[in-house]
Design goal:
16 strands; 2,3-Dihydroxybiphenyl 1,2-Dioxygenase, domain 1; alpha+beta; 2 domains
Length: 267
């Protein structure tokens, strides 16, 4: 699995700013914040810091003092799916939000300020897959690229890849590399020659109860051990660990049903 962030510095830290269009953050909105902190704290060794206050009840997940993800609380009147949302970097969230609208997507939240951390918007592509846009105010530090417990990849599962990939290419400046296969509809999105995300088309095999959606992959040292911990902590295993081109990967869900993948390798 290739880390989707910019090229690391010699000391292993990420660069001060992500290139526009790079996946740069992930967040999760849940009903029970305390129980969710317990689950991910035990699974990934995350610690938690409150804020930004402008986002309501919200915490930043920390790994060795570095921010890796955000978790907030859904308002009681909002009946939305519990799902991890990837954010793409932008130098101008207002302009990017307008580009989303002009290309058939929608903006459901923002653009709005997140305190002194930056500015964000949450939208969906023309097929309905939800993603975020993030314009940072300043570099706050990130965990070393690929460290266990950090997000390392994002993949969009949708009906077909051609139109979906074109949307992200025009909004975020991605280039595409299509997998040549008669029975696999798969595109890898690149920036400056680096793979940053993927689009996988399933056609009519896409589950109706899920619809098009993004999946975030988190690095782990041992995928089989991570799956056992997910079960022990009250989560579910949706697809058991399997070996593939990008290492050993399993699809799981937390106790509230948020799906994500754990990825070991490649070695």
């Amino acid at each position: 699995m290739t880390d989707a962030r910019g090229n690391a510095r010699p000391n292993g830290e990420a660069p001060a700013r992500h290139a526009p269009g790079t996946p740069c953050w992930v967040s999760l909105m849940v009903h029970g914040l305390d129980a969710t902190e317990e689950f991910y704290g035990a699974l990934f060794d995350w610690e938690f810091r409150p804020g930004p206050e402008q986002l309501g009840p919200y915490v930043s997940a920390l790994l060795n003092g570095h921010a890796v993800a955000g978790i907030g609380v859904l308002p009681p009147d909002r009946h939305l799916p519990i799902a991890w949302t990837p954010y793409f970097a932008s130098d101008d969230v207002n302009a990017t939000a307008e580009a989303v609208r002009s290309r058939g997507g929608t903006i459901g939240v923002g653009p709005l300020d997140a305190g002194g951390a930056g500015r964000l918007a949450i939208g969906s592509d023309p097929s309905g897959a939800v993603f975020g846009i993030w314009q940072p105010a300043a570099h706050t530090g990130h965990a070393p690229a690929g460290a266990p417990g950090t997000p390392v990849w994002n993949e969009l599962t949708t009906y077909e890849s051609t139109h979906a990939a074109k949307f992200y290419e025009t909004v975020f400046g991605h280039d595409e590399q299509r997998t040549v296969s008669a029975d696999r509809d798969h595109v890898t999105l690149h920036l400056d020659g680096r793979p940053v995300a993927a689009v996988h088309g399933l056609g009519n095999a896409l589950p109706r109860d899920r619809g098009p959606h993004w999946t975030t992959y988190f690095a782990v040292t041992d995928a089989d051990d991570a799956v056992n911990r997910v079960r022990h902590l009250g989560g579910r295993v949706l697809e058991p660990p399997r070996d593939g081109d990008h290492g050993r990967v399993a699809l799981v869900a937390d106790p509230e049903g948020a799906r994500f993948a754990v990825a070991e390798g490649p070695r």
